Amino acid sequence: MADIRREQVAGMNIHYINYSLDYFLDSQKRCGFKTIELWCACPHVWLDHLTYYNAKEIGLKIRERDLKVCVLTPENCTYPYQFAAKEPELREKSYNYFANGIRLASELGCGMMEVNSGWGYWNEEREEAWKRSRDMLSRLADTGREYGVTLVMEAIRPEESQLVINLESARRMFNEVNHPNLKVMVDTCAMGVANETLEDWFKVFGDNIRHMHFIDGNPYGHLIWGDGKHHLGRFIEILNKYGYEYYLGQEITDGRYYSDPAMHDLRNMRNFEHYIDY
């Protein structure tokens, strides 16, 4: 049987948007999580281009429950900030927003921050948006090096971007930025939509894969394990085959989970417990 460590399974607060941060943290402890991927958006964590919420208070809440933050994820799909912003003022505000995320991660003792390529405008030449995304990621990687934080870049779906949407475009961006503080992560939803496999990603990136949004899907949907078509045990076999020791973020975003996220998180953890090496 394939095995993982409990600490690798990282709960996430994105589907707790209708509940308080305290409720989320209490739920994670009750469900048996040891690690969380902290999504930064109201009402849980205030982060913008000017400032960020009280890191000391957040850190204390997390430590009091014997939890730790493995990855910090600034909201970057629906907010106005994005990595391929065009207008100079918006580009600078976006940089300051993500740089504040890096600073917050550092204060929380978290060594990784999730990023993507952004999307630019769809009515412009793709290469123009690509250059802005590459320059932004390079600049943020420099900031990450200053604060001891590594960026982990995911591909997103074609509906969300014209830039990094699959393995091949992720490889191109990774090679062009070419910075020790930029690594890659796998989102199994985007991976499935692109008709790719975990093994495909490991063959290309190997140990440069430092994080995952590791969820079930059809392949669309960010689903609790058991609610989609992926096979958890076979996925974990691939992780072990390639010696993956990093985290498995539970980015659960389907609306069916929002009314009772704690119940679904418990169900999710029970699925993982079949494969956890105690």
TrEMBL record:
Xylose isomerase-like TIM barrel domain location: 29-256
Name by which UniProt lists this protein: Protein FrlC
Coiled-coil features, chain-numbered ranges: none
Organism superkingdom: Bacteria
Pfam families (UniProt xref): AP_endonuc_2
InterPro entries found in the cross-reference section: IolE/XylAMocC-like (IPR050312), Xyl_isomerase-like_sf (IPR036237), Xyl_isomerase-like_TIM-brl (IPR013022)
PANTHER family for the chain: HYDROXYPYRUVATE ISOMERASE
